[in-house]
Amino acid sequence: MHSVVLNSMQGVLGVETEVPITMELTNFRMKWKRQFQQDNPAIIDFDCDVFGLRAYDATFALALAVEQVGNASFDFQKRNPSFNSTDLDTFKASQYGPKLVQALSNTTFKGLAGEFSLKDGQLQPSTFKIVNVNGNGVSSVAFWTPENGMVKTLNSTNISVLSTSEKFDLIPIIWPGGLLSVPKGWEIPTNGKRLKIGVPVKVAFTEFVKVAKNLSTNTTDVTGFSIDVFKAALEVLPYDLPFDFIPFAKPDGTSAGTYNDLVYQVYLEEFDAVVGDITITANRSLYVDFTMPYTESGVVMVVPIVDTGSKNAWFFLKPLTWDLWLTTFCFFVYIGFVIWVLEHQINEDFRGPPSHQVGTSFWFSFSTMVFSHKERVVSNLGRFLMIIWVFVVLVLSQSYTANLASLLTAEQLRPTVTDIKDLIRSGDSVGYMKNSFVRELLKEIGFHESKLKAMISMEDCDQALSKGSEKGGITAFVNETPNIKLFLAKYCSKYTMIGPIFKTDGFAFVFPKRSPLVPDISQAMLNVTEREKTMNIENKWFSREGNCQDVSGPRVSSNILGLESFWGLFLIAGVASILALIIFVASFLYKQRHILKHAGVRAMFEIFNEKDLNSHAFKSSPQRNGSAGDQVEVKASPNSNWTESPFSYSNHADKDFAFLDGQETPSTTSHASPDIVPTTELARRYPRNA
């Protein structure tokens, strides 16, 4: 082959037919070269390949077949042309053709190219040799035989010798580019040069890119999150991509310029690519191409936070929302009214002058908030309602106590600044990371250059923020979102993040314009980000310190409880109270149905305002029917079916009555209050029909 062709094939693997070296083959090649040189004097050093040897063996096999058929005449006869005849039909055919084919199929011998044997008209596979192109020729790697497959050696009779050790201990292969490792496929660049990939030299935020000098080996170690993501993407590529990391640094090891300068080196062809925390911007994209981003986008600012927790006179109202406070108050009043309705006729604790009854109802209801109510509840409906209401109050009080304790014990942190425009109006100083493009963004939105201060490290930024603009520091620090998250992971208790205030596309890798590597590496990065490998890389480099839980905004330690959290409890209490009222009203109207029929609603209210002396509460506690020193004996009148039930307040001011079927209303006792209508008067006003 031509030297140029052979050079482009260095490292290639090939398969060729193994031709055993025999005396016959050696003599044949000598005669062949002599005869070929005489016939073709212009062609020098031409050898007969395996196809020529097989053609010679095929001719020899045909001669053997003819001898086997015999000395019969091989006359050829013309065939009868058909309707759709072709030019092949004009050829003559021998009548001994089938015999010749049969004889040829049974012919076997050892030819120049190896064993000659036909099966179903096909030459049987021979032994193949795996070769590796190196230098000006090829080297043998292994052999393949139909019997044993891949083997390392053949014996003297060209028969493969199979052994487990030989099968897996083949001759080492020299791959394209002189590599001993197996390549993934074609190589970029094709000229065999390794990619020169520039990396930034950083002092702060070295979690993304860190360049360190290894004094023991006199080499440079480049590590970091961006480096690991790039290497993970290369592992997914279907081809090998050799590269070297070259720090963008001066001889003394410091940075050689800004990130814009570093990106511009790709445009100048000083670097083949740049890997690091390079932000995608519009002006940079004019000179280079970016892969897809591998981090969050946006530029944000970090500002100090102040504690605005319990320094408020009305802080105790904060655990609950106003709608929950209002709903709770209304239910306290409502439950007090329902309990008064259920207990008024049968419970001495809920009787007395109107002002006393209103005060008792309110006191009873609101005292359940701290479970200090002392009034008895004697009706079953009242007890049923109180069981549900006490449970509601218990849940509310415990939730309020827990939330209030959380608000009092935890910090209530708020940012000192929420809008970057406020910093421009107030003339405060703003910090940015040295060599970052953020400086130009801040100048574009109106910051004076004297108000912009470059930060070198996270420690410098922390000190400047702690001082503030009044003491020569800064009020806010502006940087890309990934860097700010790293900063807050270290100082989460002092600062918070506001923004994004500028829109960017995140960090990406830089390549020359129209580089074929951009779509391939972008696709590889998609495969990496969709797997758990990216999460493992993030956990490796961005492990949060201390108890920093959330670094994305102001921390509020507790959520204010609203009505939506307790509407189910109020619904249960409301349904229970309404049900109790319906049962009570229905029972009362049923008992007083005769009076309601003849006297009307007003009489019902007057009867409701009287004591129900037939209630078990009064029957079981006769001492409550009068004062402690004025006990009244209850006895039946001999001339009447009425039961005497004299009952009065301590001032003997009101009287009770009861209607029985077929009986008149008896006269009341003396000492009646002029404001109370006697029972005889009620009977006169509302007579019963016979």
Write structural notes for this entry.
This protein is of the alpha+beta class. It has 5 domains: 3-168, Rossmann fold (3-Layer(aba) Sandwich); 184-293 and 513-550, Periplasmic binding protein-like II (D-Maltodextrin-Binding Protein, domain 2, 3-Layer(aba) Sandwich), CATH 3.40.190; 298-309 and 411-503, Periplasmic binding protein-like II (D-Maltodextrin-Binding Protein, domain 2); 318-406 and 567-574, no CATH class; 592-685, no CATH class. The chain contains 21 helices and 23 strands. Strands 17, 18, 19, 20, 21 and 22 form a 6-stranded mixed sheet that branches. Strands 14-11-15-23-16 form a 5-stranded mixed sheet, with helices on both faces. A 4-stranded antiparallel sheet has the order 1-8-9-10. The model is unreliable at 163-167, 550-558 and 622-690 (pLDDT under 50). This is Glutamate receptor 2.7. Residues 196-544 form the Ionotropic glutamate receptor C-terminal domain. One of its GO terms (cellular component) is membrane.
Which features characterize this protein?
glycoprotein, D-Maltodextrin-Binding Protein, domain 2, 690 residues, 5 domains, alpha+beta, signal, elongated, Rossmann fold, 21 helices
Global Rg: 53 Å
Annotated CATH topology of the largest domain: Rossmann fold
Helix tally equals 21
Quickly count the domains. Answer: 5
Q: What's the short version?
A:
Residues 618-628, 637-648 have a biased composition (Polar residues). By secondary structure, the chain is of the alpha+beta class.
